[in-house]
Design brief:
642 residues, mainly beta, Immunoglobulin-like, six-stranded antiparallel β-sheet, 1 helix, 51 strands, 5% helix, elongated
């Protein structure tokens, strides 16, 4: 490859880089416009005023007509009256407005955009494309398109630099013809508003059909605001700089170049470069700029965070000119670098020290890099247990949380049981009013203010509700008093579980797995037994109950015939008088102590007196039962010896 080819290739590459950079700079400049929705980027006519009327009165009716003021949103669509030669949206943009239509009848339409001119909006750039039918009328009756820059009183600022008028005619330079239609492809025009700084101006776009009522005229529009100044693309490591003038003019650089951008080899910082801008209507303005490199200072702030929680990073990078428009973040954990905005969040899954790198880029491709080391705090791992799922009066929760480093300082419990009680201790005790399903939340906090939350659904199952019956009658209390002569009684528990286990006090090894138990006195006389019951339900929850069985002769007296005998005195010192009213032929008197042991027994036969005298003074003091029994006769009474 010869040197000339090498040189040409280098120039092409450099020019391409410069062109791309210029586009980026101006796109970024547009994004800072103080002319909201001037390019219809909101997909509507916000900030615009619409009018429609007739050829002689285009602004007769204020407002928007849906057939004469239309937002174009579909890219790649061509205008049918230009033999599909004209796109309805300018290349590279997403919206445009169509002003007017292909209807006739001498219709006319307007769109107006008003702004206050500032140093940031002293350049109004609009793009337009025009479609006019040429019927060959007198020029002032032809379909036409007009652009006017007016002050707040509606007066034209400058009849030369603030005015553009074109009517349908054949052979206009830069125009195309399709049959009777003449059309102009998308054209970018800049209006220098610098003379009107601080003033309110209105740009008025007007389309008209022909005055005779038989031919149409319409236009497509898009606009934006910018700064009437030169942009500079010059990175310190490069040996060339690119100066770019704003769009919408013809250009003449002091070097004689006529492109929008000028490439300067081996630039000297501090040199002043000038360019003459000529608008489409011949108005001229000269702008100048100082050649200076773009210096980017990358920097960022961050809010120290916890593992598994977002860490916030905020770029505080700066540049002396142009704008910063790209940021590449590398978070130092082996993950892929991220190209994103100046503010970003990132989640680390391990506590460690990481080298975080930020590369900040300006709109002209200059960059700077900074790396900072950050340390992540460990996050607690919240967890807890509780001893049972069965209903108890007070249930204690036990913290089982952990942390890899440091210590946990706070435990915040929230128990959702209708009152949303909150505890702030390690192992709280809580009373649930009833079985049910409850959300229990534990939030733990470390010394570094890192948090973790766990929510468990705690199921509190009911315990068996025991109800005992004896011989199918509900037992009113825990004690059952039976007559020693009652050989058996059935005690039964209701259907409240799936497993029933009986034991008794006098025989610890005795077990019975049944809903009912048959109880009987192991011997004649008084006796005491305790039965224990354990019931387990389908949830594994259990309840216990105890019933006491007492065999006591006192419970038998209610079976004795009334007034069959009289015993006195009672209590007695040992001498008893017994009067038997209906004297049987033969009978037996037995005296039992409280353990059912016979302490006295005597048979009687063919007595002639109803009064008996019995000496029991040899018996120990205490409670006794006396049984008088004979043919078809039995009577038990309680006596006390003192």
């Amino acid at each position: 490859m010869n040197n000339k080819v090498k040189t040409d290739l280098t120039l092409i590459v450099r020019y391409t880089i410069s062109l791309i950079t210029s586009i980026l700079i101006f796109v970024n400049t547009f994004s800072q416009t103080n002319c909201p929705n001037s390019n219809f980027g909101s997909g509507n006519f916000n900030n615009w005023e619409g009018y429609f009327g007739t050829f002689s009165q285009p602004a007769l009716i204020p407002g928007l007509d849906e057939t004469r003021h239309v937002i174009n949103i579909d890219q790649g669509v061509y205008d049918p009256y230009t033999n599909n030669g004209l796109l309805t949206i300018p290349p590279g943009e997403h919206f445009s407005a169509k002003l007017g239509n292909n209807n006739v009848n001498s219709e006319a339409e307007q769109l107006r955009y008003t702004l206050t001119v500032t140093p940031e909006s002293n350049l109004f750039i609009y793009k337009y494309a025009v479609v006019l039918q040429d019927p060959g009328h007198i020029y002032y009756q032809q379909p036409s398109f007009t652009i006017e820059v007016k002050n707040e009183n509606g007066v034209l600022f400058d009849s030369i630099c603030g005015y553009y008028y074109v009517y349908a005619q054949q052979g206009m330079p830069g125009w195309n013809s399709t049959g009777s239609v003449v059309w102009k492809d998308w054209t970018t025009v800049g209006i220098n508003l610098d003379p009107y700084l601080g003033e309110e101006v209105t740009i008025v776009f007007t389309t008209r059909d022909c005055d005779q009522g038989g031919h149409f005229g319409y236009a497509y529009i898009s606009a934006t605001c910018a700064t009437l100044q030169m942009s500079i693309s010059y990175c310190p490591e490069n040996n060339f700089a690119t100066m770019t003038a704003p769009a919408g003019f013809n250009y003449l650089w002091e070097t004689g170049d006529e492109n929008q951008s000028l490439i300067i080899d081996d630039p000297n910082p501090g040199d002043v470069i000038s360019c003459l801008l000529t608008a489409f209507n011949g108005c001229e303005v000269t702008i100048s700029a100082l050649v200076s490199p773009t210096i980017v200072n990358a920097d960022f702030e961050y809010i120290l965070g916890c593992v598994n929680k977002p860490v916030e990073f905020h770029s505080i990078s700066s540049t002396n000119q142009n704008v910063l428009d790209n940021f590449i973040w590398n978070f130092g954990d082996g993950s892929q670098a991220v190209s994103d905005s100046s503010n970003i969040e990132f989640i680390y899954d391990q506590s460690d020290t990481y080298d975080v790198q930020l590369i900040a880029y300006s709109s002209d491709g200059c960059s700077d890099t900074i790396t900072k080391s950050i340390s992540l705090f460990p996050q607690p791992h919240s967890d807890f247990t509780y001893p049972t799922h069965c209903y108890v009066d007070s249930l204690q929760f036990f913290d089982n949380s952990s942390i890899s480093q440091g210590e946990i300082l706070n435990w915040n419990w929230t128990i959702e049981d209708g009152t949303n009680l909150v505890y702030d201790n390690l192992n709280p005790v809580h009373h649930f009013n009833a079985p049910g399903s409850y959300n229990v939340m534990l939030v733990t906090s470390s010394a570094d203010n890192c948090h973790d939350t766990i929510i468990k659904k705690v199921e509190i199952f009911p315990n068996p509700d025991i109800e005992l019956t004896r011989n199918n009658e509900i037992i009113p209390n825990d004690t059952n008093i039976l007559c020693p002569y009652d050989t058996s009684s059935v005690i039964k528990v209701n259907d409240c579980g799936v497993e029933y286990i009986w034991t008794k006090k006098t025989k610890p090894d005795w077990l019975l797995y049944d809903q009912s138990v048959l109880v009987s006195n192991p011997g004649m006389g008084g006796f005491f037994e305790t039965y224990y019951l354990l019931v387990i339900n389908e949830f594994g929850c259990n309840s216990k109950d105890t019933t006491f069985i007492i065999w006591d002769f006192g419970s038998c007296s209610e079976n004795s015939p009334e007034n069959d005998h009289v015993i006195f005195p009672n209590p007695s010192s040992g001498l008893l008088n017994i009067e038997i009213k209906d004297l049987p032929v033969s009978f037996t008197i037995e005296i039992y102590d409280s353990q059912g042991t016979i302490a006295y027994k005597q048979d009687f036969k063919n007595l002639t007196t109803k009064m008996l005298y019995i000496d029991c003074s040899n018996l120990a003091k205490g409670n006794y039962f006396i049984n008088i029994s004979g043919d078809n006769y039995s009577s038990i009474s309680q006596i006390v010896f003192y």
